[in-house]
Each structure stands twice: as C-alpha cells, then as structure tokens.
Design a protein that fits this description.
Elements: H1 4-19, H2 24-29, H3 33-37, H4 49-67, H5 89-108, E1 118-120, E2 126-128, H6 129-155, E3 166-168, E4 171-173
Antiparallel strand pairs: 1-2, 3-4
Helix pairs in contact: 1-5, 1-6, 4-5, 4-6
C-alpha cells in the first residue's frame, strides 16, 4: 500500500483526470462533434476545445518524458493541435488515458521520501517530484475548466445574469 503522501497524490491525480466530477476526461465526454473544432468568437488565441484537449493530454506525455523518460520532448509537442494530424475526441481521450496510466504506475512505485527528490521539468528547471506531479494534475484541472467554459459558451448555457444567448453551429448570436 502506498505511503500517505503518495496515496493522496494518487487520489488527486485520478480525480483530476477522470474520477472527479471536474476531471479532464469527464469534461471531454460531454463535448459534441460540433463543439470539438468550434472557435468561440472573440476568444483570445482562437483555440478550439479539441486543441486544448490535445495540449492537455500531450502535456501528460511531455512531463512524463522529463520526469521518467529520455527528456527528448519539448513544449512544442503540446502545440501540435488536433488538425495536423487530425485527432478526434476519442483519439485524444485514449492518448490521455495511456499517459494517465503510465503516470499512475510510476507514482505507485514512489515512496513519500521520493516525492522530495529532484527531477527535471520540460523547461529545464529542477523541481521536486511532488511539484511535477502536482503540475500535471493542476494542468488537467485547469484545462478541464477551460473546456467546460467553452462548451457552455458554445451551447448557450454560459451567460451573465439577465443575458440571453442561443447558438447555431457553434456561432453565438444575441
């Protein structure tokens, strides 16, 4: 059985991805095909839900590569989006599950003392293993919220008090 700090991180790591009501995979499950590539008018950077989802799951791979792998991936890997090559929601979720499982397997092997050990982040900083694990689960939750917000804007349920919106093919109209 994992030691207390490791057990807590495992619990939080699982919840951030798919066991918690705000987890990344749970939010993605509710995304429709029309919402996947839609761009919300006026959104900075013009990122679709699909692009954000790929960035999030590719980040799991990127962080894992630097914490446990060969340290070959760069931050550019998460910027590849979903259009080239075309990645579907199911592909992205499956890829995320693969790297989620790899993380869980590695975390389960750690001791509480191992969490204090230094490791490298993909930007070159030396951080504790606990901090890197926390960054990955925080990344999942951050982008799950971003995806949830964009989905609500696209389906017309995200509005200020007294404001009314409806949507047609992912385009807002007053």
């Amino acid at each position: 059985m994992p030691e207390p700090a490791v057990e807590t991180l495992l619990y939080l790591f699982r919840r951030a991805f798919d066991e918690g009501e705000h987890g990344l995979a749970r939010n993605l499950a509710a995304v429709t095909e029309d919402q996947w590539d839609a761009i919300v008018p006026g959104q900075p950077f013009g990122r679709s839900i699909g692009w954000i989802a790929w960035h999030a799951v590719a980040g799991k791979h990127l962080y894992w590569d630097h914490a446990f792998g060969e340290r070959r991936l760069t931050g550019d890997y998460t910027e590849q989006g979903v259009l080239s090559p075309r990645r579907t929601k199911d592909d992205v979720i499956a890829y995320g599950r693969e790297w989620q499982q790899r993380w869980l397997e590695k975390i389960e092997q750690l001791t509480d003392a191992d969490l204090q050990a230094p490791t490298k982040a993909h930007w070159g900083a030396t951080l504790s293993m606990r901090r890197v694990i926390s960054a990955v689960l925080e990344h999942d939750i951050y982008h799950a919220g971003e995806i949830n917000h964009l989905r609500a804007v696209l389906d017309g349920t995200d509005k200020a008090p007294g404001e009314q919106h409806s949507t047609i093919s992912g385009q807002l109209r007053p």
